Amino acid sequence: MTTLLLIRHGETYANRLNYIQGTLNNRLATLTERGIADAKAYQEVLKHNQIDFAYTSPLKRALATSKIICNHTNINVRVDSRLSEISYGQWNGTAIDDLKRQYTTYFDSETNDVYPHSIEINNGESFAHARKRVWTFVTEISRKYPSQTILVVTHGWVIKNIISLCLNNTDGTAFKNPQNLSVSKIQVDPVIGKQKVCYYNRPLKGIGKL
User: Domain count of the chain?
Assistant: First the structure.
């Protein structure tokens, strides 16, 4: 089975301000000093783990995180647009607290994320479309690199929905977003249609063996 290590990007200014980001790609969505420093901590982790390939979302926060993590290694970081965060349309770059007050029926206060039917008013990407593109990436990479370990730097919504798709297509809204720079591990064999969730949202602190 192919092993995928799913890492959420480092802290951004939008994270610090509690804004919903989606496909936001301006200065608000760039890494803070803390995000950069925390990403550098993975450099030591990679010294003790075999990584065969690395893929990243093209959004600035993920791309910067992947380059920091893989610095001082011979791992070539490849960009794949299917790993981009879901777009929240008109809500990209909006304060989450404002959304929760104004659009109560479209926002899940438990998971701090929007419901799938929010597309009715925000003109964003549908959950179904985003889940399809994300899973296409997972299955394609697993076929291409059987029995290898792939590092994937992406976004909170993407990671929790990959996990949900591994768990018999459970609705991704059941999960809270993983923390910045946490790692989630799955194993996939698309030939026989088997996938396994090894762990979800493991914090960087104390990580030795991925």
Answer: 1
Element (H, E) at 37: helix 33-46
pTM of the model: 0.95
Query: Which amino acid does the sequence have at 164?
Result: S
Establish whether 8 is an annotated binding residue: yes
The answer to whether the annotation marks 88 as part of a ligand binding site is yes
Question: pLDDT digits over 177-206, tens only?
Answer: 999 999 999 999 988 889 999 999 999 776
pLDDT tens digits, 116-138: 999 999 999 999 999 999 999 99
Cβ atoms < 10 Å from Cβ of 48: 10
Instruction: Decide if 72 is inside a domain.
Output: yes
Could you tell me if 134 and 161 are in contact, meaning their C-beta atoms sit under 8 angstroms apart? yes
Binding residue per annotation — 61?
yes
Q: Is 85 annotated as a binding residue?
A: yes
Domain span at residue 130 reads 2-202
Active-site annotation, residues = 9, 85
